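Query structure, 441 tokens:
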């Protein structure tokens, strides 16, 4: 069993573990498993070992929150000596000369960056395959690991690393975390926004435990107090398993996971009642417009002729949306007003994370745009609206399907600033209903 990040860091700080040995063992696990799982676009083997030795020699080793912890970073992150491909062969490939904010904060905390994880082109899709590989679900490699942080989720769920960085524009942390049985936190837009997709995209952590999730969040956000998971007092929780506006059917086992979580939270003293926000019909337009227009803006720095067929179609749609002026702030504000109305009577909202089971793993990048759009929208019915609102949300594992063996999960949402509350509730669910941490068991 892979140690947790908190266990590794504590042992390194105490001198009981050597960062170089910890990194070597992580690289061995990657070498053993990634040929099947396909989590990494680039493994930084030599660089990681050198950086681990540098961590071991740091004079502040005893105070580093992620001392010697191997961490995978999503392939959207500026790392010295590397280039962020964003899952594409059409973008710049010049190695960066400096770390971006995410890599810099991870290094400052003592983490060792072992590799860049696979993403779909321009992070558009909830399946992470590229011409050189497919990120597969470690619980059943015939299924996709999700997206766009699918490589990060696969790396953690397979036990290759204890922590991974992800980003989330419409569910890109929560969806793969749910598919792979992890804790995945999308912070509020006020905490870790990266500015992409017209403010919908944020950075966040993926881990096998709530404590590790909080630890990585505290480092990514540069807010040390977030590492302490509180014990929440009783709160009012609204619960719904109905897909907003579309009302499409949700698989029974995904619905049952919400019922189980509701019962556990009620037993912990919380008030759980059926309730949902009054979703404005324009909300879907607001999300869809940004989903298309955001990549269209990003693609301005890419060779469009080399983009995948599905991406070119998505970018064309985004350009039409931009010309028509359909990315409207008032659409977002109307939804925020409805969300605020709901949270006047509730502190938390509980839903499924997935609105359908994961798709099969495959070369989705070779298929047409519509063949990707339909399963994407089918999966993500419960997630994207909270990116539009900018509210924090967390995915928590609840068990495994009796039919497929795939993980089940729930999503908890709070109003801005509610990350500690979400972590506290997730910890209560973890204590009452422990889950297998990785597919390695």
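Result returned for the query:
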């Amino acid at each position: 069993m892979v140690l947790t990040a908190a266990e590794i860091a504590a042992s390194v700080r105490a001198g009981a573990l050597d960062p170089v040995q910890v990194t070597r063992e992580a690289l061995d696990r990657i070498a053993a498993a990634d040929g099947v799982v396909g989590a990494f676009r680039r493994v930084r083997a030599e660089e990681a070992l050198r950086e681990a030795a540098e961590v071991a020699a740091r004079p502040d080793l005893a105070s580093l929150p992620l001392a010697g912890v191997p961490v995978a970073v999503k392939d959207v992150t500026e790392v010295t000596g590397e280039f962020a491909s964003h899952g594409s062969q059409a973008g710049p490939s010049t190695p960066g000369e400096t770390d971006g904010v995410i890599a810099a904060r991870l290094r400052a905390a003592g983490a060792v960056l072992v590799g860049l994880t696979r993403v779909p082109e321009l992070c558009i899709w909830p399946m992470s395959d590229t011409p050189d590989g497919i990120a597969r679900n470690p619980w059943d490699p015939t299924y996709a690991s999700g997206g766009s942080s699918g490589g990060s989720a696969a790396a953690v769920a397979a036990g290759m690393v204890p922590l991974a960085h992800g980003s989330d524009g419409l569910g890109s942390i929560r969806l793969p975390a749910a598919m792979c049985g992890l804790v995945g936190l999308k912070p509020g837009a006020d905490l870790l926004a990266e500015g992409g997709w017209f403010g919908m995209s944020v950075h966040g952590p993926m881990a096998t435990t709530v404590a590790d999730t909080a630890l990585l969040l505290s480092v990514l956000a540069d807010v040390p107090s977030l590492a302490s998971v509180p014990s929440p007092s009783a709160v009012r929780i609204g619960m719904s398993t109905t897909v907003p506006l579309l009302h499409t059917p949700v698989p029974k086992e995904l619905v049952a996971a919400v019922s189980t979580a509701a019962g556990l939270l009620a037993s912990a003293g919380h008030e759980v009642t059926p309730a949902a926000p009054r979703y404005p019909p324009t909300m879907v337009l607001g999300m869809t417009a940004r989903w298309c227009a955001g990549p269209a803006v990003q693609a301005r720095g890419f060779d469009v002729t080399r983009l995948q067929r599905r991406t070119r179609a998505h970018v064309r749609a985004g350009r039409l949306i931009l010309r028509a002026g359909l990315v409207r702030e008032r659409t977002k504000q109307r939804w925020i007003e409805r969300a605020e109305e709901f949270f006047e009577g509730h502190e938390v909202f509980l839903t499924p994370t997935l609105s359908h089971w994961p798709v099969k793993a495959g070369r989705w990048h070779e298929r047409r745009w519509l063949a990707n759009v339909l399963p994407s929208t089918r999966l993500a019915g419960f997630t994207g609206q909270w990116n539009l609102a900018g509210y924090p949300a967390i995915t928590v594992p609840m068990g495994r399907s009796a039919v497929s063996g795939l993980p089940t999960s729930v999503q908890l949402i709070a109003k801005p600033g509610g990350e500690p509350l979400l972590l506290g509730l997730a910890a209560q669910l973890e204590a009452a209903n422990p889950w297998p941490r990785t597919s390695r068991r």
